Amino acid sequence: ALISMRQLLDHAAEHGYGVPAFNVNNLEQTRAIMEAADATNSPVIMQASAGARKYAGAPFLRHLIAAAIEEFPHIPVVMHQDHGVSPGVCQRSIQLGFSSVMMDGSLGEDGKTPMDYDYNVAVTRTVVEMAHACGVSVEGELGCLGSLETGQAGEEDGVGAEGTLSHEQMLTDPEEAAMFVRATGVDALAIACGTSHGAYKFSRPPTGDTLAIDRIKQIHARIPDTHLVMHGSSSVPQEWLAIINEFGGQIPETYGVPVEQIQEGIRHGVRKINIDTDLRLASTGAVRRFLAQNPAEFDPRKFLAVTVTAMKEICVARYEAFGAAGQA
Ligand code: G3H
Ligand code: 13P
Ligand code: NA
Ligand code: ZN
């Protein structure tokens, strides 16, 4: 059944778990996420980015998610629009039937330029008024995502500030977060706490303090009723990097956010954990390996089926690690 983000995250907060929010662009991702949720009895957040709408087209995306709900009627599903760059984008998603939207007013309409607090409040508040009138939840974002190690926003996938960020820009201010939530009425707030989008988060193996856990604690203490969202939460599995590179890929040494640190975040109010890159890496590794080992194969269903298996394994692991398993 389709449910709102608020309904799901209220339940998650009450029971102390986190929900992975996976990006969807195609049938294989949708199927992997749903089969994993079915196998572990987990609730689902599927999110579509602007890039996904460009790739698949809004009608195909909407009907893919509708098909998932039809085939798995016992699994609660949130259909979320990721990184809306304007109230207009969010309005169209609400009209399309999304049950949750993100207004990312930390960046301008180009999805790159950091914007000031007043702009962010104005656009986010506009979306909250529109969305809440329709029973749709809203996620806002305050602060600029960036790796505390590299100072980079990780904008290679087109989402994130351009250039190098200061340490303070990359950490959401707890007082400002409290003001922002009061001024906008958002249901969930994406915070900057040391993560960044994409595969290149850290150049060295992460130590225990990859994430600014203290900052998460301080923010949660100020706004305990607002669900915290962690973007850029892929763990960048080293096994998949090795497979990609073994079968012709060229991905330099890189590291993601350790699952244990995400679990620590969940203990301090993080409820929605955005993951896209890990499923991309697993798909690419699975396809490269399959085609290298089966050079005479030309039925795309064969190499696409292995992507479903690879992605499903990661989804199962995250549902279990974040405590969502058994909560559907
Ligand atoms: O937040 C970013 C997601 O990874 C979506 O990326 O715009 O390439 O679909 P995308
Ligand atoms: P990753 O690039 O770490 O998977 O993050 C995805 C994300 O935050 C989508 O909004
Ligand atoms: Na989002
Ligand atoms: Zn994001």
UniProtKB/TrEMBL annotation:
Which positions bind Zn(2+) 2? 104, 141
List keywords of the entry alphabetically. Glycolysis, Lyase, Metal-binding, Zinc
What does the record give as the active site?
Answer: 82
Protein family (similarity comment): Belongs to the class II fructose-bisphosphate aldolase family.
Quote the pathway field: Carbohydrate degradation; glycolysis; D-glyceraldehyde 3-phosphate and glycerone phosphate from D-glucose: step 4/4
Instruction: Tell me the SUPFAM superfamilies matching this sequence.
Output: Aldolase (SSF51569)
Q: What does this protein do?
A: Catalyzes the aldol condensation of dihydroxyacetone phosphate (DHAP or glycerone-phosphate) with glyceraldehyde 3-phosphate (G3P) to form fructose 1,6-bisphosphate (FBP) in gluconeogenesis and the reverse reaction in glycolysis.
- Indicate what this protein is called per its UniProt record: Fructose-1,6-bisphosphate aldolase
> Which residues participate in dihydroxyacetone phosphate binding?
198, 232-234, 274-277
NCBIfam families, per the entry: cbbA, FruBisAldo_II_B
